[in-house]
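I trust your eye. Have a critical look at both lines of this record:
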Amino acid sequence: MSGHSFRIWRFFDGLLERFFSFFGGLLFGQFPHFYAQYLQRLGGHLEEARLQLTQYTQAANLHHLSLEEYIRIHLDSSNSIFNSSGKIIADLVKRFEMLEKAYLALREAPPLWRGWVFIHYRESDIILETLKDFTPGFPITWEGLSYAVIGIICFWGVYYLIKQLFKYAFKKSKTLPSSCGLKSY
């Protein structure tokens, strides 16, 4: 590679490296803002499930039953309509418990662990809803800065690995086996 070509390559290499790093910092820096919006939506789903369960609990109390007994009567019914409503209520109880567990874990997670807790307790439908209405913002906090730095390091590392793979592939393509009778250039 001539000196001029090498300088051009280094210029574009540095430019791409900075672009990847900047993009990673910008992307990861959005996480605290997205997390807050996601947590609000998750809390809304939790409150709606709580409201519905309260209504079913009140209906059960009118018949001097616990919610569990009320559900069991519905599930044991030979009437398919009551049976299906029992399944719906039982599923609602499970969903409420799962949402509550996720909400409490996400709300109490330390800032730098929130990414891992988020991955563990993620709800795909709520993530998609949040993304649909997501308003980007860059929080000027230590948490936002920390995630931006993590993003810079991660994306720089990805760029470095891709660059090394290209270098390796390029070197391999220039080196031909001696058994084929061709010279490498």
